[in-house]
Amino acid sequence: MREIYSVFNSNGAYETGAHEHDEFMLMVPEHGLLRFKDEQTGRTTSVVDRQFVLVPPQWSHSSSSLTASQGHVAFYVDPDYMNFALRDLSGDANRLLRLPTLGIWHASAPLHHLLLTKKAFSQPDPYIDRRRQITQTDHLLLLECLAISLSQPSLQRSSTERHGAALVRDVQRYLNGNLDQANSLDELAAAFHISRRHLTRLFAQHTGLSVLAYLQQLRLERAGNLLLHTRLSVLEIANSVGLESPSHLAHLFRRAHGCAPDEFRRQAQH
């Protein structure tokens, strides 16, 4: 029986043309934004971290990164191993659950933690052979994805048809995971396949904030936590939250807290 094959990909210029696999494919983004296209229907969807894509064998699809930085892990599962995993999931060797179909689903907290575990096990170690742990973790990741895909409706549909609240949640999730990037409104709108005007309207309707105000709120919260709980310099903190200079961070802090970042840190230490 063939094992599950998996590969980490962190190439910002990632792009594949229309193709298909003999195996099932699972693609789980870690960070950044991916475009996934179902070539058989022509439908395109933006996929963010905390989601995953499942593609059956012989199903034509393409994908590409929509951001300067992206990372994902792809799993390739032989159909025979998929049947084995479905029996394992059912808990009955004589009961075979239905094969999963094409779709995109929200990842669960256990799936996220398993992915972190896999990444930790995959780090080179000259003294420990972790191949057995990696194989076991891959199997658990597959079972968790199957449990989700067989029990929940797929999110796979055109981004322009997605319900406004769901799309705004995806934008928020993306911004939270890519705060160090200088995300412009035009880039965000293009990445999610909607107009700038439509994105602005939906975001304000569902959050009560403009995209810029939400970004600044996120940056202030993240910067405040870093000031309180790390020894990073103000310059390092500014860069880590997507600001071009310490003076920009200082301007936002004075407007929100009435003091500069260094003073904010000193006051918290007393």
TrEMBL record:
Keyword Transcription regulation attributed: yes
UniProt keywords, alphabetically: DNA-binding, Transcription, Transcription regulation
Keyword Transcription: yes
Residue stretches making up the HTH araC/xylS-type domain: 169-267
SMART domains according to UniProt: HTH_ARAC
Role according to the record: Regulatory protein of the TOL plasmid xyl operons. XylS activates the xylXYZLTEGFJQKIH operon required for the degradation of toluene, m-xylene and p-xylene.
Protein's name according to its UniProt entry: AraC family transcriptional regulator
Organism: Pseudomonas machongensis
